[in-house]
Amino acid sequence: MRILVLDMTGDILIVVGMYIAKVPNRNSPPAYLLRESYRENGRVKNRTLANLSSLPIDQIEAIRRVLKGETLVPAAEAFEITRSMPHGHAAAVVGMARKLGLERLLADRRCRRRDLVMAMIAARVLDPRSKLATARGLSRQTQASTLGELCGLDRVDENELYEAMDWLLQRQPSIEKKLAKKHLRDGSLVLYDLSSSYYTGRCCPLAKFGHNRDGKRGVPQVNYGLLCDREGCPVAIEVFEGNTADPATLSTQIAKLQERFALKRVILVGDRGMLTSARIRQELAEVEGLDWITALRSEAIRKLVESGQVDRSLFDERDLAEITSPDFPGERLVVCRNPLLADERARKRQALLEATEKQLDQIVAATRREKRPLRGKDAIALRVGKVIDKRKVGKHFILTIEDDRFGYRRDDVKIAAEASLDGIYVIRTSVDAESMPAENAVATYKSLSTVERAFRSLKTVDLKVRPIYHWLADRVRAHIFLCMLAYYVEWHMRRALAAMLFDDDDRVQAEAKRRSVVAPAERSDAARAKDRTKHTPDGQPVHSFRTLLADLATLTKNRVRSGDCVFDLLATPTPIHSRAFQLLDLTL
């Protein structure tokens, strides 16, 4: 930079130039001096104006460039963010899947189909959508997150995803065998239950009308049975036609456990609708190395009560008692009574009776009105049947139906008989007392709730296996297996992130607070504090699993361009982001 100093006549007296000089300083860092040079009387002279050595080197360089006459571009113009993509949630899910060794479970060597399946599993956890929407979310041009990039994908179409599903289904037996080897051992407890999801369409041969569990009437459904370890971690899943009864699925599961998974001894846990007396006699009793735990149906419990084998005096000091019965030879029966459950069933029964009586009174009034009274046995019975069937309390009423009259009254004897069973349930098992005390047998049966939790997550809360749109039976099987693998990843993520979620992260203390195994489960003090304050002990907000994923999605990956240079830059993680990745044991 040159500065001209003029007199009043316009003649040049001095020409001044400023520059930065770098002066070596032997063993010390060099000195940077702001100097000026000028010509006076034909001679060049220099004068030091300031010592800039204390400034950062980048600031010194910027001053040097200004003195040379360069124009410095503002940072907003020098750096351009060409694209910003949600990244944190995808990195967390893919990172956890890889940490669990899911890629090696799918295939030993990397291939495009393995990458596609990994992407579909992660996409099911992040944002369950159709295969077309998933393909668009993975392709670089239309991607909705960095998931495609994390899985090594660039361009994806839905047909590739369908082909990858077919490839996955072929590998299902080997994948489940690897999962079983990882989570099951000889003598392991195996939880098994069956659920269903409604089917939209009429093309799939698996879709049949059957026992509806979704409350979706008028549509066919598909059944699927889930095998889990004792803690509820999914191991295997099998799809059945929608009209398949629960007990009819047992034989295939036993064969799977003993033949495919090579387990010589297994304790199978199923509910009373699954492990019925008929199935136990026909399919379980003679199977070597197979024990089971289930519960009695209400009809069998009523017979025990009426025969005097179960009496309320059993529960004077304890809420469970072990008995034997000639009707169940070689079995142990653990009778339990939960007073809270008894009170709730009594309250619910009374509410159903009163609601039904209110509608029955309307029918009585209709037969007595002066204008157009309700007449005819068939017409009256039709109206009564709709009311009685709605709440399934017909057994508690004595009805009188005539051509011109209708009356009813409660059947107090049947009501009292049912009330005597309130809060009572009976666990039945073939496991001997030395191997499993009565309290452990009850606790094991109640652990089936973890499978029910898995079904809720699969069907509605997170992974949304329904509605099912695939036409081909094998595609439906692949879709449901894909959802199970996604739940496998989510199950482990929930356990790792429990401290940040509303989930109870101190289950040891929660179990210690429980009065007995029959009593309802308790929440730990830490979990109650999270419920009350909606914050963790370190002051961070408590999340659900879905809202935490949404929060992690705000950790973006930005494509930055500066001149000809293009690079990626992550947004600064928040304390919540850092804590989540710390709990998952992943690096950002």
Key attributes of the depicted protein:
588 residues; Transposase Inhibitor Protein From Tn5, Chain A, domain 1; 4 domains; eight-stranded mixed β-sheet; 21 helices; 21% strand; elongated
SS content category? alpha+beta
What is the helix tally?
21
Residue fraction in strands? 15-25%
* CATH fold-level name of the largest domain: Transposase Inhibitor Protein From Tn5, Chain A, domain 1
Q: What is the percent of helical residues?
A: 40-55%
For the record, what is the CATH homologous superfamily label of the largest domain?
A: Transposase Inhibitor Protein From Tn5, Chain A, domain 1
**Cα end-to-end separation:** 46 Å
Roughly what is the average pLDDT, rounded to an integer? Answer: 87
- Strand order, largest beta sheet: 8-7-6-9-10-15-12-11
Note poorly predicted spans: 1-15
CATH structural architecture of the largest domain = Alpha-Beta Complex
Number of strands: 17
Number of domains: 4
**Quick one: CATH class of the largest domain?**
Alpha Beta
Q: Main β-sheet, in a few words?
A: 8 strands, mixed
Q: Taking Cα atoms only, what radius of gyration do you get, to the nearest Å?
A: 36 Å
Shape descriptor reads: elongated
Notes on the protein architecture:
The protein has 588 residues and is of the alpha+beta class. It folds into four domains: 2-72, no CATH class; 86-168, no CATH class; 172-325 and 433-484, Transposase Inhibitor Protein From Tn5, Chain A, domain 1 (Alpha-Beta Complex), CATH 3.90.350.10; 341-419. The chain is built from 21 helices and 17 strands. It has helices at 57-67, 75-78, 88-99, 102-106, 112-126, 131-138, 147-150, 158-183, 250-260, 277-284, 298-306, 339-368, 377-391, 412-419, 438-446, 449-461, 473-496, 507-513, 525-533, 545-552, 575-583, and strands at 2-6, 12-25, 28-40, 43-51, 80-86, 188-198, 221-228, 234-241, 266-269, 290-295, 320-323, 332-337, 397-401, 406-410, 424-429, 556-562, 565-570. It has an eight-stranded mixed β-sheet with strand order 8-7-6-9-10-15-12-11, sandwiched between helices. It has a four-stranded antiparallel β-sheet with strand order 1-2-3-4. Strand 9 (266-269), helix 10 (277-284) and strand 10 (290-295) form a beta-alpha-beta unit. The longest helix is centred in the middle third of the chain and has 30 residues, at 339-368. It is elongated and about 135 Å long. The two termini are 46 Å apart.
